[in-house]
Design a protein that fits this description.
Layout: E1 3-5, H1 9-23, H2 39-50, H3 59-85, H4 92-100, E2 108-110, E3 124-127, H5 145-153, H6 158-164, E4 167-177, E5 180-182, E6 185-187, E7 192-195, E8 198-208, H7 210-218, H8 223-235, E9 241-244, E10 251-253, H9 255-264, H10 279-285, H11 295-300, H12 302-324, E11 330-334, E12 338-342, E13 349-351, E14 354-356, E15 372-374
Parallel strand pairs: 2-3
Antiparallel strand pairs: 1-15, 4-8, 4-9, 4-10, 5-6, 7-8, 11-12, 13-14
Helix pairs in contact: 1-12, 2-3, 4-12, 5-7, 9-12
Length: 382
């Protein structure tokens, strides 16, 4: 019998994430203190969203999902609160959307839940937690640069990996000039300081990534080194010489750095539930999972792999942007294809004899999950 696909799973997930953000608009505001996060209130507001896929009266399913959500969100907000206490506000929607992207709530589990399978149901493990030392390597390397490099390179803790890669560091660029000899006393202009017989002026504070900071401390050469040196030379062109300073501990949230990390790293590649985005490469290399690719195959397919990562990133960006458009009657899903899904609302306004559903979307329940179905009647149109 011919099979038909009722609805793309990715679209359902995108819609669920958007409505989740709309329901929690106050919790995601920049003015919100992450330390004030209250799991009991949060879970009451979002329980129906999380357990919508459970069968009626299936208390085990409900308890299992709530337990997993509690571990994720309480851990996330403890970490975000620590960043906020140190002066760095990170928009939690970036982290939540990245971790949940491509998953329905009842598929979601962390690495530590592998023994908690339920009636043979398929689960994915999109994140890892290092609960042995929750605040280890928060905002840097804690004085153990090599340990931090290995820790994040192998993604020992997914949340801290994402959080650290969402902040930028300050990298000073200095220009040098000759001092003024005033009767044997060397002096500099007011905006410069005398260093080793030269007048040093701070020309620019450039931005470096988390990995730039680690590699800089470890003395690991990367292409960024040359890029920074070239940029500094251009900014200090009016000086006799220039020099890069030491990356400082001053940090700030950077969405650009965050997405650059996701595009250049293998973060998405390691996630089994995202394999479908890499289907072109997997078909070409005759593999079922990105984890099976050799380094040679990675190099040969570098351009296509980055395109696949960009498709995921575009999906994440679209969800965040759509959630910000709270007055829109429809949301645009951007990915491999474009979708427009009118949601509607309980509040309707009339403009020029045309009705617009511009309020918050009404509650809903997916009565039939995505997937292939037997066509009910031969040659029936769908």
């Amino acid at each position: 019998m011919k099979k038909i696909k009722l609805l793309k799973k990715g679209l359902i997930i995108s819609f669920l994430l958007i409505t989740f953000f709309l329901a929690n608009i106050n919790a995601f505001a920049a003015s919100f203190r992450y330390s004030e996060f209250n799991w009991e209130e949060f879970s009451k507001e979002n329980k129906n969203y999380w357990v919508g896929g459970c069968n009626e009266n299936d208390d085990d399913c409900v308890d299992r999902i709530l337990k997993r959500q509690e571990q994720f969100y309480t851990t996330l907000y403890k970490l975000l609160a620590e960043y906020q206490n140190r002066g760095v506000f990170i928009d939690d929607r970036y982290i939540i959307t990245t971790v949940f992207f491509g998953l329905l709530p009842d598929e979601f589990a962390d690495e530590g839940s592998k023994e908690d399978e339920y009636e043979g149901q398929k689960h994915y493990y999109p994140y890892k937690l290092d609960l042995s030392d929750l605040f280890k390597y928060i905002l840097g390397d804690d004085g153990d640069t090599k340990g931090a490099y290995d820790y994040f390179n192998s993604e020992k803790d997914t949340l801290k990996t994402l959080l650290n890669n969402s902040v930028g560091y300050t990298l000073p660029c200095y220009g040098f000039s000759e001092p003024i000899n005033d009767d044997g006393t060397l002096t500099c202009k007011s905006n410069a300081e005398l260093v080793d017989g030269k007048c040093r002026t701070l020309v620019s504070n450039m931005k470096a990534t988390f990995w730039n900071a680690l590699e800089n401390k470890l003395g690991i050469f990367s292409s960024f080194d040359e890029d920074f040196k070239k940029e500094c030379a251009e900014k200090a062109a009016d000086y006799s010489s220039n020099e890069l300073g030491t990356i400082s501990s001053e940090q700030s949230f950077s969405a650009d750095f965050y997405f650059d990390y996701l595009k250049s790293s293998r973060f998405f590649d390691k996630k089994e539930h995202l394999n479908s985005y890499f289907k072109t490469v997997l078909n070409k290399t005759n593999h079922k999972s990105m984890s099976e690719l050799t380094e040679e195959e990675y190099e040969e397919n570098k351009e296509e792999i980055e395109k696949s990562r960009e498709r995921i990133i575009n999906g994440i960006k679209a969800i965040i942007e759509a959630a910000n458009r709270t007055n829109s009657s429809s949301f645009q899903m951007c990915g491999t294809d474009d979708y427009w899904w009118p949601i509607g609302s309980d509040e309707v306004t009339v403009n020029g004899n045309i009705q617009f559903a511009t309020g918050n979307p009404p509650s809903f329940r997916v009565s039939s999950e995505w997937g292939l179905r037997d066509q009910p009647r031969p040659n029936a149109s769908v």
